[in-house]
Design brief:
198 residues, Beta-Lactamase, six-stranded antiparallel sheet
Length: 198
């Protein structure tokens, strides 16, 4: 699995950690296998990661792992819950579409954007990586979502209700692609402070 479109631009260190780990466990294959994935190998991003079981026949996903920051953002501890059991909002609809896109493409998806509430926003980077079973069937999606906001502030923001996901940039991987010499790096994700927060 080749993450070169990410590595040629500034990305959060936690996203890079996740991508490099997925490359490592996918050596010799197009996609990493779920059975090879060990959350403890990427302990530094544990609070920002989630693992979704792909329930293809039911057009649904189940959180088998849901880090503390992810739980804050979706409003509940999602562990062992299906997406269809969570509050159905604009955010959950946007998230499900990104998961559906990853399943359809069988490739990673990187997103840079914001979580927006009525009077505040935080920058976010997300990486979704599909994982297969031993026979190559899509089994899970490994996800990492990292914002430029400390967890305690996310808790305060989340108290205002579910955010909206705004996507500024999306990169879909292609396991057969080669780097483009004309590609232009995206600007680095910069912390944004909201003067209305006291």
């Amino acid at each position: 699995m080749d993450f070169w479109p990410l590595f040629e631009r500034p990305i959060h260190a936690g996203i890079e950690t996740a991508a490099r780990y997925c490359s490592e466990i996918a050596v010799g294959r197009d996609l990493p296998r779920r059975q090879d994935f060990r959350p403890t190998k990427v302990r530094s991003i544990l609070g920002h990661m989630f693992l979704l079981d792909v329930l293809a026949e039911e057009n649904d996903y189940r959180y088998s792992l849901c880090g503390v920051n992810i739980s804050v953002l979706i409003g509940v501890d999602g562990t062992n819950k299906r997406m269809s059991e969570l509050p159905q909002t604009d955010m959950s609809a946007r998230l499900k579409k990104t998961y559906d896109d990853v399943v359809a493409a069988r490739s990673f998806l990187y997103v840079r954007g914001q979580y927006n509430w009525s009077n505040r926003a935080v920058n976010i980077e997300r990486l979704l990586v599909p994982m297969t079973d031993g026979e190559g069937k899509l089994q899970a999606i490994f996800g990492v979502a990292i914002s430029d906001c400390p967890t305690d502030m996310l808790v305060i923001y989340a108290g205002a209700g579910m955010a909206k996901l705004v996507i500024d940039e999306a990169i879909t991987g292609n396991v057969c692609a080669q780097p483009s010499p004309a590609s232009t790096p995206a600007p680095a994700l910069q912390p944004r402070l909201d003067p209305n927060i006291v």
